[in-house]
Amino acid sequence: MTDSVLSVLxxxxxxxxxxxxxxxxxxxxxxxxxxxxxxxxRGIALHLRRMAAAHSRLYxxxxxxxxxxxxxxxxxxxxxxxxxxxxxTETAPGRPRILTVVRPPIEPDPRPVALVPVASPRVLPEIxxxxxFHQIQLARDAQAEGFDDALLVxxxxxxxxxxxxxxAFTRGSEVFWPDGPAxxxxxxxxxxxxxxxxGFASRRAEVSLADLSGFPAAVLVNSIGxxxxxRIGGREFTASAEAATTLGQIYRQIPADPI
Length: 259
What we know:
single chain; 6 helices
């Protein structure tokens, strides 16, 4: 990801040091991230719904979805094509603070990735929370071993997700989404119903490391798009590039919503 930052706002205003402190002194909060093109993004309602659920789970209070959306609109006002991250924390009960960070847009990298299985699921995997040190370190360790990222599995070997993306396995016209501990990503939520319109059967099922030999392809999906998986550990996937191309085409046909 590029380090360039186009805009940083807290509650819609350019922040001073005091406004930024709640976001820098503790990794407390939740966030969502999306690709914006022409001030539109796919699945805006899903993003807002997930943020509301996360906020309720973490703080026991509600956030105003329309306020969040208006702050998102303000953030991309001068940046119609962008990568937008929206972070939320709470400094007092019922007083959420909202940080929007705008970076240049990111395009999918078509290069296949290699994953190393790690028996270390995320804490609270159902929430896209700010406590990402664990994921960053697992990815760093994976890269030190010659892989691109880690594949998180539970102690029983059930596959969940990578450190930053959901994973899917394909076999013929079937797409399998592992039901191990994982965040239910927005791209996953968008692709799942769309696949049926293109003749694919989308299934959520238990997938373990022992099952990998039964799949010719694997892909990662997140807000950037669809990425082919070359191998998991020593298991190679020969059809991942084709699967990623097909699923990526389906994903791009999903209409975007004005922010």
